[in-house]
Amino acid sequence: MNPHIYSLLSSLTHLDLGDNQFKYLDSYEFRDLRKLQVLRIDGNHFPVILEQTFCSQTRLQYLKLARNRIAKVTTHAFDNLTSLVELDLSYNKLDKLEATTFIPLAEKLRVLSISGNNIDIEEFKYVLQVITRIKRLSLADLEITTQDLPVGLFSHLDSLRFLNMSGNQLIHFPVHLLSPTSKLMELDISRNKFHGLDERLVARLESLHDVHLQENPWACDLCHITPMMSRVNDSTWIKRAVCSLPYNLKGRRLDSLTMNMLGWCGSGLGYKEEGFAGLALTHKTQLGLIAAGAAVALLVITMAAVVAGLLYNRHHAAYYYTNEEKRNTTAATASEKEKIINGGPPEKKVSIATIDEITKDPELQVLAS
């Protein structure tokens, strides 16, 4: 669009240019729109938000920049947006946001979405330390794992009321992260990898008005959903959770189950299904370790039995030969004694020398001669 068109619209308060094919914004594109309050330029192809792009928009309250190709927001891009209440940067190509970029927004900003980007959550923590008055925060589809969550991520957000962490890779949510968010009313953890929620987290979430749990692989067994089942009759959001495992309970809502219907960890069919490989692997590994331990124990017992058998045989043989020798000596002595008693001389033993012994012994050689 020709920027001069805006000069004819000096009283304009709402402008929607969304879902077009815009590829570039001039740094002074909207300088004549000084009364603008709502600006939607989402769904276009902007690669960058330059400095001074919103230099005249001191009244702007809502800015939608989602679904573009934004890879960079310059440090001073939002310098004059001192009245901005809501900023949507979701589903772009951002991998970094500077904390200094948000300093002009610190007083008024209440809603922020950075969902669907490549932002490192560890670095984004410093942005949250600037915009401490935020009430609604969306961190969906960022591929965040439980290990990625930094300590103190929400420690400055005591005004936070809605938190969206859907579409990530979370299998566990550390309850201590929610400790500073005393005003939190709604949490969205749908489309993650939860098999169950622990006791402390369930107790913390009881104080919320709503929790979104859909599209998680809930494992309906005694290892994973016992804390949820203990409160299923008192909580609307727990009732809506739907079992994915095992087969015999797949598709059942938690409020249709009883504790007697739950099996032990990994028992029953369905734990090898795609999407649950980690859970199946855990139980396979446990079984493998048990089998390996049993095999080692059997080997040790076998070796011990063999060694004991050898020692017994050796001892038995030594005992046999020792007693045989004693028997032979006793028999010989008795024979000699009998001859003496009968009046005859003891039997003389004749010693015969071999040729080799005669050759080696000089005295025998003389006798031989």
Automatic annotation (TrEMBL):
PROSITE patterns: LRR. The keyword Nucleotide-binding does not apply. InterPro entries: Leu-rich_rpt (IPR001611), Leu-rich_rpt_typical-subtyp (IPR003591), LRR_dom_sf (IPR032675). SUPFAM superfamilies: L domain-like (SSF52058). The chain crosses the membrane at residues 287-312. Gene3D superfamilies: Ribonuclease Inhibitor. The keyword Amino-acid biosynthesis does not apply. Pfam families: LRR_8. Keywords: Leucine-rich repeat, Membrane, Repeat, Transmembrane, Transmembrane helix. This is Toll-like receptor 2. The lineage of its organism: Eukaryota, Metazoa, Ecdysozoa, Arthropoda, Hexapoda.
